[in-house]
Amino acid sequence: MCAHFQKHESSLQLLIPQESLDKSLVVQLSFSYLVLPLSTPMDDSAFSDFLQNGDYDSGNPEWFPVARDGVIFLVDCTATMVSEKLPEALVRAGTDTGLKLALLLCQNFMRKKALSSPDDMVGLVLMRMGTSTSAESRGVNIFQNLDLTDASRVLAIEKIREMSSKKFLECYGPLLTGESYPIHEALWVCQSIFNNVRKSLGYKRIFLLTDDPDPVGSGIQLKRQAILKANDLRQSGIEIVLIPVQQDGIDFKKDTFYKHLLPSETEIDLLLIESSSRLDKLLNWEGLQEPRRRRLGRLPLYLVPLTPAALIRGAIGTECFSQVPTLAFGVAAYCLVRRVPPPKQVRLFAKTNEAITVKRRFHKVPRGDQHFRGVKEGIGNVVMPQDIVRGLRVGNRTVRFEKSELTGRLRQVAAAGIHLLGFKSLRKLKLWCQLKTAQFLFPEEGMAKGSTLWFTTLLSACLRKQVFAVALYVHRRGMSPHLVALVPQAEKLDECGAQVSGPGFHVLYLPYREDFRRFKLSKCPLAEPEKVRAARAIVKKLSTKYHPEAIPNPSLQRHYAELEALALERTHSHLGVDYTQPDLQRINERAGREIEQFANLLSQASEEPS
């Protein structure tokens, strides 16, 4: 790899961790005139295509692959799951058995997917049944194949959930009894369902709900076959998620069987912790919409800013930005928390109830035909897009604009990406220096090899020195640049070892000087110290920890509840709790005395003569 280096006063030492060695490598980088041509091995096809085409993010399907999720609920219908009563902690309305609890989880999951990710596919498979859907498997009943969620599928699961245990056995036959059950056959059926799906799937998961810690019992051959099948699923990209249903009198020990079925012994505890939290989340779901988390775009992060001459040549089009020598690596931008907008309105045709596609076309109008109505027949009257010239009437002349002027090509002062300008201390970043919704950066190894290593090095250096990076952010070609702050965030783990927040950079949009306003506030008399202390006591009593995802939008909850009631043909919609309304009872319990003391002080002040 050949590179041309020029020294500059400003430099930064980056600590590059080696993947295979315990030692570290210290590299001295000059952030102003370090020139590295993009003809190095870092220049793969995806990276060069991105630099040459600013709209590559939205036009190429390889950047945004159709990654719909596929989930199969595999319910173990043991005798205790079907007939035994659940503990009081897991009992919900109409879910007194483990089977009904599993069906409720599947129903809530499908309702959730119908709102947040309607393209995802969900299926339901029952094992240890007396009847089998396929002659090649024993005791496996495919109740619902892997397909999109609709109202009929949700109502079918609800119909089974309302059955009693006796009626369920009458409709679907007796259960298989015995010490050992070939669970590998049920896993084989789930794998066949995934393979038979014609649409491409991103994440493929099997939710295994069971109360039996050892389904194979003393069958050594069945245990070996189950482990082989689980490894086969893992190699095929299918994840097995265990959700244990704890029954009274049954000690669900993972070491008995599932430690051999799950990925590794070090991950079993985390998987079980995530499974129990997932169980609580699905049980307590109240219509909260969780939109699909997808990346906003993949961008190059330039460690070396382009020179002014290169910026001018790239802006006027004499030289492509991708041909300018620089040093950059790939990052992906995500939006962690945002305001969920209401769904868009769709126009429907009244007779068939199909969506209407609106197309806009321009037609020639004869000169002097000011009262023209309708469309002239004939293909010769259609005006093609390349024949349209846009302009603005100024006085008695028409000023015409070229296409490059309207697309913002001439306004582009930097290549699309993030251009690193410098670093400042985290103490100088104020809380109110945020203009727009923040984004989150994560390394994108698919753009350029070595991006993860460079990203980790820059992140560790910023965390060690307690600084944030100031950069120029151009999200797409033709868009105006923004000054942003790249705030580092270290990885956080809880006491159980599960990840709470991932490592990366938060992108905060910095305000310009004209964005700050100075108000002339009228002078008011200061409150007495006694009143200030009383008000501070109320605030201290009523203060609580806040998280942006903790309080859902009540208007959206009501909207989706009404849509769900219409789809499921129900007369009443189930409305969730509106957490934006104050809970007067709890406020009185926590700060009733402080509020009364504060009110007494105010009443005494109003009674005193002025």
From TrEMBL:
CDD domains: KU70. It is found in: Nucleus. InterPro entries: DNA_bd_Ku70/Ku80, Ku70, Ku70_bridge/pillars_dom_sf, KU70_core_dom, Ku_C, Ku_N, SPOC-like_C_dom_sf, vWFA_dom_sf. One of its GO terms (biological process) is double-strand break repair via nonhomologous end joining. Residues 380-527 form the Ku domain. One of its GO terms (molecular function) is telomeric DNA binding. The keyword Chloroplast does not apply. It comes from the Eukaryota. Keywords: ATP-binding, DNA damage, DNA recombination, DNA repair, DNA-binding, Helicase, Hydrolase, Nucleotide-binding, Nucleus. Pfam families: Ku, Ku_C, Ku_N. Belongs to the ku70 family. This is X ray repair cross complementing protein 6. It comes from Echinococcus multilocularis.
